[in-house]
Amino acid sequence: MVKSAFHWGELSCVAAVWLCPSIAKAEPLPPPVPPRETEQTEPPAGDAAESEAAADAPGIDVTVTGQKHPPSVTSLTRGEVRQLPGAFGDPFRAIEILPGVTPIISGLPFFYVRGAPPGNVGYFLDGVRVPYLFHAAAGPSVVHPGIVERVDLYAGAYPAQYGRYAGAIVSAEASEPRTDWHGEANLRLVDAGALVEGGFADGRGSALLGGRYSYTAGIFSLISPEITLDYRDYQARVSYDITSKDRVSLFSFGAYDYLSSTENEIETVLFGAEFYRVDGRYDVKLPKGGSLRLAATWGYDQTRVADGRNTKDLSFGTRFELKQPISETLTVRGGFDVQHDSYSAAKQLYVDPDDPDADAFNSLFPPRTDAVIGAWADLVWQPTPRVTLTPGVRVDAFASNGAQALSADPRFALVVNAHERVRLLSAIGMAHQPPSFIVPLPGLAVASLRGGLQRSVQASAGVEVDLPFSLTASVTAFDSIFFNMSDTLGVRPPGDDINQVPRSQGNAKGLEVYLRRSLSSRLGGFIAYTFSRSTRSIDGFKFPAAFDRSHVLHSALSFDMGRGWRSGARFSIYSGPPILDSSAASALFRPSDPERDPVFFRLDFRVEKKWRFLETTWISLVLEMVNATLNTETINGNEIGPVSIPSFGLEGGF
Amino acid sequence: MSRAWGPLLSACVTVGCLPADSRPTPGSVFVSAQPSEATRGGFTTADGWQVRFESFLTALGDVDLHDPDEDGDEPGPCNLYSETHYEKLFDFATAEGGKVGLVYGLGECSVEYRVRGPSESALLGAGADSEDAALMRARGSDAYAEDERVALLVRGVGLRDGVEKRFEWSFRRSFEVAKCSAESGDSPVSVVGLTGGAAIELRIVVKGDELFRVAPNDDAPIEFDRYAAADADDDGNISFIELDAVPAELSDEWPQEGLPADEPDLEPFSLGTVVYELLLPRVTRLLGSGVCEARGRP
């Protein structure tokens, strides 16, 4: 039977849409991009092998910058991301191995960051808000890796530039426009992708076009004819240098996901999501290395679920960003932005009008107009060569459906170079956020600021040391306090009724240990370990958050075997989350020390053979698998999986 | 960019690409509930007692559509468009009931509903008030259900020859009710054929007198003597503990199948066990149907 009826209280099932196992996948090889002029990570000295590998595919850094400001040796180069087993070459997917990141379910691209739930993690691409990062059914990221120059994970106390999220920020920066013609393509069992970029107008202009198209509908028609699964995305960019200091750009990207079931000749949409962005910019290079950006962004978001329900968001925003060094020791940064969101929601046509569930949906997501305006500023000040202070502040004013709120978020970061190989890094900051939905989905935003803003105070302190043999080690302690959280996922309300959007207080504290050697070295690897405790308080009870995992350990090794062969393996192990009774009986009771699900571990591997032609042309065959041991995971007493993702793909570039 | 891609991209960026709901217009099933005459106005038992309910509180809801044969491997003929996710608390002793739910679908579908304790979001139906709801939401355990809300609360009195026996029983076991057979033995009343735009109405009948049958059989007489005799302390109130202390008498009306579970601690059956395990599931059925299949479900 086609069960199109969809209990909104079961939206956690939507998350499962991202977890359809047994779909082969591989990520395309990111294209070579030139090093950034600023903020570029310096590779560890004396690592010739890494430098060689970086020459293959330089440019991508995945950095933890929440407490390590400015980002430095904690980066993963693009070559490293490619070599990370289980990441499929996708810099977004590599985020999950970083310290402080706690997975909800292995393989699911939603995670807690230092105790902050997925709904409190904001995603940005070049400063443009992105509603979700990954295609459904364990698909690739919604942005072609070839256009991503760097991904930063701000695990907390992030710079004043970022706001409206009380947990963490995942910010990807697009590559600089290039005028030399280059491109790449990939062919996989479930999709194909390509990206090409080149110059025009004698090098003053650059155009890029990329995208990915899945043909899973055809694959599924052989396996499960009643299921239709489809996803695709695109990226297009045109830029033109008016002068050597002025550039105008038009950047557009979008993604589409669709899952339906057809029985008795009736096609029922089970889940659909799409978003599109068009961002026009004017960039100016200012004296002393300063920069200015004026931008306007148009967006369209839509989510459709069964029952014929859907929500849309038509958005328009502008932003102004300024960075201006005043002297060799002082840089001023600041900006403001305005965001306007016009939400509409199609009411369910075929529904019992008395059903509180329908009322709850309509109440949570009514048609309305939301607006937010914000301004921020900070100083990067080096009073001495060894000390960098970054005080900042951000102010936002929110309006939604007649409700209004104002927030002011102070931020402060301190970096002390205690020794040429030792850095002390600390940060503290406050952040506010409107009430969030259980997982970020296009066009789904809780209306009317009901329950008020969420608020967090996050602090961290750590030490980072450069060790011999190009090893880098860091130890960071963090403490995050969350007020008035709408972490439905973390408190597991009675009956798992997410319509309640219950408010809770939260706390997460822990220790992160990170030891790494570039994966693109001849022999590279890392160990990332997080020991943490994340709690929620609600109705007078303090209990561990539903996805509190005390121990999270990732480790990987990658080895260059020569003659174009490279192999690697990754081992991840998580302690089990608590078993929280979500039956209605639990309304009045939450144990402070509940039983926990068993430990989960998984083993990923990656093997690549690369052939080179001419000077810059290459072809690779990549075999990769997530959870090669087919281990199952237990969440709240329910066995899930095994979520194992095999991949076999052909990649090439010029 | 080709001429074909340009308009497509423009269309997606401006109005979206996700297809609209293309399903054909469904049919609907309106489910309501009403008390039997015996529940609403009282009844006379075969052994001469006048039994009257003062309260007959229960919550009905969570109406759903399923394939008639859910065990089949192939997709069934039922296309569910919407189900309900609420229940409504009624006092069928004092009011005439009302709407339970409205569901939509297409094809041949089996209608199911639940008898359960009211959840926090339960609606108040005819005769019930917030105090009733609060009383029934209080969780507890008995010999037959653990940590459950009260699914049925009955209060009443039996009178005969100047003797008055009062009873107040709470039943915490919830049921999912389905496959209500036709009285005539034809296809189940709970299976409906839904065509586009058609509106079908089904009525749940709440039959409180079923709690007093001498056996779980429509032909078995309804008597009160055994209950009155169970009042061991002779205080005029028949508690469920007292019912549980009385061995059940299996008469000729008892069916050969469907006896309580083969658990040692349930044998010999008590009168309480008979009421809880065998008679309680018979309290609701669809109008015009015989007994329904009632599966225990927390």
Number of helices of chain A: 6
Largest sheet of chain A: 22 strands, antiparallel, barrel
Kindly state the mean pLDDT of chain B as a whole number? Answer: 86
Structural class of chain A: mainly beta
Instruction: Note the beta-strand portion of chain B.
Output: 25-35%
Structural class of chain B: alpha+beta
Percent of residues in β-strands of chain A: over 45%
Number of strands of chain A: 33
List the chains of the largest interface with their residue counts. Answer: A-B, 49 and 48 residues
Multimer state: heterodimer
Give a written overview of the molecule:
- The complex is a heterodimer of chains A (654) and B (298).
- Helix content of chain A is 6%, strand content 53%.
- Chain A is mainly beta and 654 residues long.
- In chain A, the strands form four sheets. Chain A has a 22-stranded antiparallel β-barrel.
- Chain B has helices at 5-15, 37-41, 130-137, 225-229, 240-244, 271-279; strands spanning 27-35, 43-44, 50-66, 79-82, 87-91, 98-116, 123-124, 152-160, 163-171, 175-178, 191-194, 199-206, 237-238, 284-286, 293-296.
- Chain B has a 15-stranded mixed sheet that branches.
- The longest helix of chain B has 11 residues, at 5-15.
- At the A-B interface, strand 1, strand 13, strand 14 and strand 15 of A face helix 1, strand 3, strand 4 and strand 6 of B.
- Strand 1 (2-3) of chain A pairs parallel with strand 4 (79-82) of chain B, so a sheet runs across the interface.
